[in-house]
Design goal:
about 260 residues, mainly alpha
């Protein structure tokens, strides 16, 4: 194995390249353990613009997706959609490790994102298993690729990636996960509701990691984080920031109202 392949960023690229969900999960945990236990070097890499993915699910536009509801078919559609988000989230966590280097980044940065990658891998694993319990599986339904499209659009700018992906798109999970879990409980699906509550708690930490590094990098380049976030969102985010917002969860993540609740 050459030097670049035995470093965190080189191995992160190997995770991204896996097409099989099972192998991606396996490789994700393997690389995380190498970083946390074996103390491998950070290294360098050239990650692919598109990550490896299986032939299924078929990708389509959001309006072509099956309807989500609390009936059995609707619940499967909901869980499948979230499972696909978590599959993309595995790729996003390893991509932000493999793709970006910056003078202000250190082992703490990479440790933070490896920890996020472990969580996202666990989410995908237990949601995939939940689909199997409901006589379905990941890939049985179509899915959309909006989250990864946002990653591609910000592939040359770490601040933009942090602003658009964890601080904006992933923060939406903080706004919706608990209400979705409550609807599932009312429909009698306590198990899926329990899993979504785990995702919710972990996503607070993930948004916090994004906010933390956005603010730290802004400090190193003498930029006001709030003003810089608004500038980036105006330039890079398609659509408007719309509530309702879970202010409590966002504030726990360090994502205070002055960042996102603005009119102009």
């Amino acid at each position: 194995m050459n030097g670049s392949q035995n470093t965190l960023r080189g191995l992160a690229t190997e995770v991204l390249s896996q097409t099989s969900p099972h192998k991606k999960v396996e490789k994700s945990f393997e690389v995380a353990n190498k970083w946390l236990i074996d103390n491998i070097l950070i290294g360098d890499s050239t990650p692919p613009l598109e990550p490896g993915r299986p032939d299924r699910p078929i990708l389509c536009s959001p309006r072509e997706l099956p309807k989500r509801s609390t009936g059995i078919k609707g619940r499967i559609a909901l869980i499948h959609a979230i499972t696909h988000i978590e599959f993309n989230a595995i790729n996003l966590a390893w991509d932000i490790i493999a793709r970006f280097s910056h003078t202000s980044l250190n082992r703490t940065y990479y440790n933070d994102w490896v920890t996020v990658a472990i969580d996202e891998t666990n989410h995908f694993k237990f949601l995939s298993n939940r689909l199997l319990q409901l006589d379905s599986s990941y890939g049985d339904l179509p899915a959309h690729n909006g989250l990864w499209e946002a990653a591609k659009d910000t592939s040359n700018n770490l601040l933009a990636r942090l602003a658009v992906v964890p601080m904006t798109l992933e923060a939406r999970a903080l706004d919706t996960a608990i209400s979705t879990a409550r609807r599932l409980q009312r429909a009698g699906d306590d198990e899926t509701a329990r899993l979504l509550e785990i995702v919710y708690r972990d996503e607070i930490k993930h948004v916090a990691v994004g906010c933390k590094w956005f603010k730290l990098i802004c400090k190193t380049i003498d930029k006001n984080p709030v003003s810089e976030y608004k500038r980036i969102i105006r330039q890079n985010y398609r659509g408007a920031l719309k509530g309702p917002f879970n202010h409590t969860a966002r504030h726990l993540a360090g994502f205070t109202t002055d960042f996102y609740d603005w009119k102009n």
